[in-house]
Write a structure and sequence with these properties.
247 residues, 11 helices, 2 strands, 2% strand, binds fe (ii) ion
Length: 247
């Protein structure tokens, strides 16, 4: 009887059981995330698939910035869950076609902290929680909820902020039409070092320049390539609206 045989009999069942438990835990975790994302997207029909698109854009930008694979996976999960706190925002505010009142905007501004309250019940997503909490911070320190600036904002949150703005600008909402590609570029440039990390903007602009007339979805994504919308006339320009309605 070889030692190898004994080792196989004693060790492998433990490893197999641990692997089975880990597999079940990962499957459950994916299920929790999917359930939350479905609930968030169902609140605002005009923002359907917004979470998936933010995850896709964040992943693409993160890869182009050379971030490691575990960071990329965290960016994807954080992108999917970034607006989970909006579950606590009344639907009348989320889908309001006109400008928000100051009081309504204060209600919207609570959603990153609400997200942490919701996700705090889960023991995983350790890397994702700070990204979600800070995805509305501005690079110049004038964002919310903590007023963090520059490198004090987690890099994942700085990427999410740009990914969130990209999908909002490319999409039609109850309060705005889609932006043209030229306008998206101009908004990103104008927001560099003010709302957005200039390094993230630099990477994003290079990506948009290379993509020309279409932004390809990452290979891992099941979604088809995303084409920029045409140059539709703006029915309602969001000038003067709170920043959250733009990004
Ligand atoms: Fe948000």
């Amino acid at each position: 009887m070889s030692n190898g045989y004994c080792k196989t009999e004693i060790v492998n069942p433990v490893d197999a059981k641990r692997e089975k438990l880990l597999h079940a835990a990962r499957r459950d975790a994916r299920g929790y995330v999917a359930a939350l994302v479905t609930a968030v997207d169902a609140r605002d029909p005009s923002a359907t698939a917004h979470s998936e698109m933010v995850a896709t854009y964040a992943e693409t930008i993160g890869r182009r910035m050379g971030l490691g694979e575990s960071m990329i996976q965290s960016l994807r999960s954080a992108g999917l869950l970034h607006d989970v706190g909006k579950l606590a925002v009344p639907e009348a505010i989320l889908t309001k076609p006109g400008p928000l009142t100051a009081e309504e905007f204060e209600t919207i501004k609570r959603h990153p902290r609400t997200a942490l309250d919701i996700l705090g019940h889960l023991r995983f997503l350790t890397a994702e929680k700070p990204m979600i909490l800070h995805h509305h911070e501005w690079y110049d320190g004038s964002g919310y909820p903590a007023g963090l600036a520059a490198d004090r904002i987690p890099i994942g949150a700085r990427i999410l902020a740009v990914a969130d703005a990209l999908d909002t600008m490319f999409s039609r909402r109850t309060y705005k039409e889609t932006f043209t590609l030229d306008r998206v570029r101009a908004e990103l440039r104008a927001g560099a070092a003010r709302q957005f990390d200039p390094a993230v903007i630099d990477t994003t602009l290079h990506w948009l320049d290379e993509a020309q007339d279409g932004v390809p979805a990452p290979a891992q994504s099941q979604k088809p390539s995303i084409r920029f919308r045409g140059r539709q006339a703006m029915r309602r320009l969001p000038v003067g609206q709170p920043p959250d309605r733009l990004a």
